[in-house]
TrEMBL record:
It is found in: Nucleus. Gene3D superfamilies: 2.30.30.490, Bromodomain-like (1.20.920.10). It comes from Pleurotus ostreatus. Keywords: Bromodomain, Chromatin regulator, Nucleus, Repeat, Transcription, Transcription regulation. InterPro entries: BAH_dom (IPR001025), BAH_sf (IPR043151), Bromodomain (IPR001487), Bromodomain-like_sf (IPR036427), Rsc/polybromo (IPR037382). Residues 116-178, 194-216, 588-614 are annotated as: Disordered. GO terms for cellular component: RSC-type complex. Residues 27-97 form the Bromo domain. This is Uncharacterized protein. The lineage of its organism: Eukaryota, Fungi, Dikarya, Basidiomycota, Agaricomycotina. The keyword Nucleus applies.
Amino acid sequence: MPITSAQKAAIEEVITRITSMHSSERRKYQLAGMFLELVDRKDWSEYYEIIPEPRCLNHIRSGVEKNRYKDALDVYTDLSLVFWNALFYNEPDSTIAKDAATLKATLESEWKKRPVLPLPRSFSPPPSSAQKVHKMAVDSPPSNPAPPAPTRAEATRKAVASETHKSPPAPPTPAAIEGLDSSEMEVDVEGMQDDMDVQGGDSEAGPDTGRNPGDDEIIRQLEKGLPKWPGASDKGWMHEDRYSEVVHAIKTYKDVIGNRLALALENIPDDAAVENLSYTAPLSLKLIESRARHKNYASSKEFDMDMTKLFEKARRWHEPTSEPYGRTLLLQRLYHALTSAKPPPGPPYSSTSNFAFMAAGPSSSKSGGEGANFSSLRMLAKAKTAVDELHYKGWSVKLGDWVHISNPDDPARPIPGQVFKCWTSTDPARLGEPGITVAWYFRPEQTFHPASRTFFENEVFKSSHFGDHPLEDIIERIGVQFTARHIRGRPRSPHWYPGWPLYVCDSRYHDQERTFVRIKNWNSCIPEILRKNADYMPIYELERVVYPPRISSPFVVKSGKGAVKGPGGIIDGNNTVEADVSTLGRKRTRRGGQEIGTPTQRASPALPAYDPATGPSSSVVPGYEYQTSQLSHHLIPVVKRPDRTITSAIGSIAGHQVQSEELPPETARYFDRDPETNEVLWFAAPPLDIAIPPAPKHSMEYLHFLAKRKKALADENSATPSKAKRTKTVPPTVTETMREVYMDVMHS
């Protein structure tokens, strides 16, 4: 129901009442001064990743004045979001949080005083608030506007940023923040319930929650318009001509019980329709074997590329984590070993680690050993020379890339990881061998958790383990996104291409304590050099927020599907804790005991994302003083110039102005989009499916005539002297003219 004039007047009174409130201190300031405008997204990019729906008072007031709201309750929701966002992002005992609590209480009381305004169903945070998205426990509303400072446990539960005073000191430099250890950037809260549902749902055991209707179509439509992977490059291929020997080893390899694993490759049809492959030509193991036997490969690079394409096809064909998928990855790792500089002894070929370099994988009972083939809790810089980039099997690997690493315990579950360092070994035993240092990410089945816990689809967890891997351990490139970005879009190329595996990460997992800790600062999980890059892993925006579906624990028996076997397991829910807090804005402790925080300005609670109803946000950054935000901004009036666009001209010919409207999302999803601008590809008319008649041409006879005439003219010009006599015409004199006139008169 549209907003009536009486409701509009009442809403404007409520907003006026909120904006007119001042503090009771000696140095008075406007309480709503920090919530009037939104600052630039570039300066507060982390804020937008944490707050799902940023709002500010001036934009809401403008929307009410221009009749953009269709329901009075929508106005109340936006007004409450301004203050809920501030309470979520800031310290509970900070001045700005106290102001937000005071104004929220004023909003509720003033709204109730006006009977013409409909009462909201609840005064709890809206579903789109950060409290519900990040599932933060909301305390009951305080009786006093300015509550007393909470205890340390209460402050950690609220996941807020550092305290901001009226005249705050200069914020700490980025270098000082990045220098903190990861242990200083996490918080564990004892006795907190295990609840990870960012959509505010119940995380108890029950039916799995799927996506909302249309979510799959939105993602499919976005990925349809993204650039496709061009395929492997021409670097990093094998050099020796051992085609038949390598194919025979792959084809005849058997596991310990005698199963021939190559059936996973042979059962794929030559012309199987596999989406998002880097090639389209038919390819199979039998075809490669035939080419190798008949010596049709001109170089080892061609053979190596065909085998790599075959493994790519098999990985896309088989279901991830299935048995054929695991056999494919084991054979790929065997192939990498056979084509390496130091192939394993054989045949027959055997390995206790499925040919992986590491002796133990995530959460393995064999982990904890010492040596180069065991993971460690810190990066080891000994006997390594750093390099910028490495090439292997057509892959280009550099700092910050996400890869699948061969898992020594379960080939069907490769280890997702991020490259923290590229190097060449200076160890005499491995002198000159290239390798990468990878931060491991664990899968749900590699963790210990309560049976009631639910997980995102394709969710992984940041661990504290680092592994030094040779390039032969790389299976493929992948993508991993933090939750705040994953629900908003997909990574841009070359960070990720459609068809590559894509994971979502929301928490850390400490395997020694068997605890989950929600990641508060995504920058603490990536290499330090990349933390200063604001454009790291940019995304293609979805048309709206899409949450990944939730699934139950892999160890819980589902209908028609047995429990998954893994190194993890089910434990008592009381033994696992989780910091159910936001991804930004908590207290941090220096080693000397002094508490510091992330730089938070007074205007930070109301920092916006783009609001389609109100237009782009202001890029004005308010100062640190309260008085700065009270300054009125006078805009210079702009003279409206006549519209001289082609659209307007066509409209004037038709006798009226042309009106353009934005396509609604439910219609725009059916159209292809530009991969760079994400705009709908729109054409004035459909393509004409008709044969274009050829343009008229001269006949051969006519062309022959023209050639003969041109030749004749050329011959004539060559025969004519260059200096021909020219006749000069001289006008008659006056005497001659008078004589002619006289003669004419006399004869007449």
